[in-house]
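Design job #97: recover the sequence.
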C-alpha cells in the first residue's frame, strides 16, 4: 500500500469539511471555540486569544475533554492544512459544528486578527 502525502490527505479531506475565511472567523471570535492544533513549540510563540491547545497528534484522545460538542468550533494551524485534517477527524468522531480556518493563523494575522503571546 502506498503512503499518501500530507497534501494528498488534505485534498481528500477538504470536500468533507467546511472552511471559514479569516474575516468570518474574526467576527465569530466571541461565540466560537477556537482550537489550535499546532505543536507546543508553535503554540508557545503566539496563538489566538482564548484558544484551546490540542496538538493534532493528541486529537483523538484529548478532543473528548478539551473540545466542546455544543456550539461552533473553529480549528486552526499555521497555514490551514493540519486544520483541515483535524476538522475532518473531529467530524468523523461526531462533531457537527466544526470548521477549519482557511489559511490558518497566518490568514488570521493578515486579516487583522489579534494574537496573544
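Job complete. Output follows.
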Amino acid at each position: 500500500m502506498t503512503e499518501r502525502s500530507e497534501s494528498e490527505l488534505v485534498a481528500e479531506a477538504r470536500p468533507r469539511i467546511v472552511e471559514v475565511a479569516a474575516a468570518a472567523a474574526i467576527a465569530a471570535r466571541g461565540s466560537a471555540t477556537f482550537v489550535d492544533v499546532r505543536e507546543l513549540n508553535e503554540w508557545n510563540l503566539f496563538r489566538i486569544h482564548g484558544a484551546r491547545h490540542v496538538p493534532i497528534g493528541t486529537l483523538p484522545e484529548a478532543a473528548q475533554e478539551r473540545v466542546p460538542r455544543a456550539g461552533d468550533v473553529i480549528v486552526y494551524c499555521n497555514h490551514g492544512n493540519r486544520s483541515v485534517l483535524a476538522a475532518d477527524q473531529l467530524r468523523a468522531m461526531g462533531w457537527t459544528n466544526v470548521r477549519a480556518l482557511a489559511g490558518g493563523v497566518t490568514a488570521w494575522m493578515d486579516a487583522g486578527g489579534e494574537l496573544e503571546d
